[in-house]
Write a structure and sequence with these properties.
By secondary structure, the protein is of the alpha/beta class. The protein has one domain: Alpha-Beta Barrel (TIM Barrel), CATH 3.20.20.150. It is about 35% helix and about 15% strand. It contains eight helices and eight strands, in the order βαβαβαβαβαβααβαβ. Strands 1-2-3-4-5-6-7-8 form an eight-stranded parallel β-barrel, surrounded by five helices. β7, α8 and β8 form a beta-alpha-beta unit. α7 packs parallel to α8. It is globular and about 55 Å long. The relative contact order is 0.14. The structure holds ligand LPHNJNCV and magnesium ion. Ligand LPHNJNCV binds next to loops. One of its GO terms (biological process) is glyoxylate metabolic process.
């Protein structure tokens, strides 16, 4: 069964944030995800989720100073206290929103980082992820890590699929999982279906977008019908987050999703 979630940081930007939940539901989405809920009261978001009858499937931990360019705290040496606070805050929202998983963004390496600095980030990342997985396990939730392409996010610490898989293996926590974003994987690693198969057991969430412009999945070099078919054959029962920038009005661009229950006409 293909279950599609609308990424409300990118889709339905024609509406104010709290109105995007109903817009997504009326287009056939059963779930929603977005970057951050923290500018809103958790109870207000819970209310719109319930009104729209959609599930909250994912959001990110507080990322540090986003406006100043920070992209997560999980691998940043010296920021461990802030990272721990961010885990607690995200899990508090997850409890209210009944969200089973949260994404811990790795953060950026300093420009020109030498091997010692990279090793320091790696060790910090491992320690922080162990802490996050331990806290999330207390309420049965998953922590996700996502390799992000370094063209869009230069310096992002976690950029390759193999790196993420090695980290998941070394930590060995059942609730530390891979956020497999095919857009990033295509740019950094390619070989999408083989990655999907090899990493299948570690995957906690999937995201899609056309490559390279990050528009609708039917625009660009990736043939998503083949990927969805393989997911179905593998027995994937998780969510697929639609995390792309619509070329024009969101709803008109949903034609690509009609075989999977979306409706392009309002
Ligand atoms: O950019 C992406 O692909 C994501 O999923 C992240 O949540 C970015 O923050
Ligand atoms: Mg993503």
């Amino acid at each position: 069964m293909i279950r599609l979630a609308a990424n409300l940081s990118m889709l339905f930007n024609e509406h104010a944030f709290l109105d995007r939940f109903a817009a997504a539901a009326s287009a056939g989405f059963k779930g929603v995800e977005y970057l951050f809920p923290y500018a809103f009261d958790a109870e207000d978001i819970k209310h719109v989720l319930q009104e729209a009858q959609v599930e909250q499937v994912l959001f990110n931990l507080p990322p540090g100073d986003w406006e100043a360019g920070e992209r997560g705290l999980a691998s940043l040496p010296g920021r461990e206290g802030e990272f721990r606070d961010s885990v607690i805050e995200a899990l508090r929202y997850a409890e209210v929103l009944n969200c089973p998983r949260v994404h811990a963004m790795a953060g950026l390496l300093p420009e020109g980082a030498d091997a010692a600095t990279q090793a320091d980030h790696h060790e910090t990342y491992l320690r922080n992820l162990r802490f996050a997985a331990g806290e999330a396990a207390k309420t049965g939730r998953d922590i996700l890590i996502e390799p992000i392409n370094t063209r869009d996010m230069p310096g992002f610490f976690l950029s390759r699929q193999a790196q993420a898989m090695a980290i998941i293996e070394v930590i060995g926590a059942d609730n530390l999982k891979l956020q497999f974003d095919l857009y990033h994987c295509q740019i950094m690693d390619g070989d999408l279906i083989r990655h999907l198969e090899r990493q299948f057991d570690a995957i906690g969430h999937i995201q899609v977008a056309g490559v390279p412009e990050r528009h609708e999945p039917n625009v660009g070099e990736v043939h998503y019908p083949a990927i969805f078919e393989r997911l179905r054959a593998l027995g994937y029962t998780g969510w697929i987050g639609c995390e792309y920038r619509p070329r024009a009005e969101t709803r008109a661009g949903l034609v690509w999703g009609e075989p999977w229950g979306l409706t392009a006409q309002g």
